[in-house]
Amino acid sequence: EVQLVESGGGVVPPGGSLRLSCEASGFAVNRGAMSWVRQAPGKGLEWLTSMIPFPGDPTKFTRDSADSVKGRFLISRDSAKNMVFLQMNDLQYEDTGVYFCARGTTEGFPVRGQGTQVTVSP
């Protein structure tokens, strides 16, 4: 059974940092794309960033990020622990929302965890 469990959310002041974790089971995170998406209050899912392995060589990958988080958020993984991370720096009020780890890059990101809440507040 495929499962994704996020953790690491919390309340952080503007300009602060958080590191989100995603523990995967039922598949290997280095065998396919992994993404982070979020849902702000009253809004739809917003894609943030993806890590996409090279075909035939899961040790290599590329990253792609939305302009809204480029330079501030970084996706990474630990293949041995089968985990994916999201390092978030310089957090702003508009970064508030529920953050989800997702398998793949399919529109709508149907395979995702239950989410972890991030609140940016003084």
Largest sheet at a glance?
6 strands, mixed
Low-confidence stretches: none
Spell the H/E element sequence.
EEEEEEEEEE
User: What is the approximate shape?
Assistant: globular
Number of strands: 10
**Fraction in helix:** under 10%
Largest sheet, order of strands side by side? 2-10-9-4-5-6
Protein architecture, described:
This protein is mostly beta strands. It is 0% helix and 53% strand. A 6-stranded mixed β-sheet has the order 2-10-9-4-5-6, with no helix packed on it. A 4-stranded antiparallel β-sheet has the order 1-3-8-7, with no helix packed on it. Strand 7 (73-78) and strand 8 (83-88) form a beta hairpin. It is globular, with a radius of gyration of 14 Å. The N and C termini lie far apart (40 Å). The model has no long low-confidence stretch (mean pLDDT 96).
Structural key phrases:
globular, mainly beta, four-stranded antiparallel beta sheet, 122 residues
Q: How does the SSE layout of this entry go?
A:
Elements: E1 3-7, E2 10-12, E3 18-25, E4 34-39, E5 45-54, E6 57-65, E7 73-78, E8 83-88, E9 97-103, E10 116-120
Parallel strand pairs: 2-10
Antiparallel strand pairs: 1-3, 3-8, 4-5, 4-9, 5-6, 7-8, 9-10
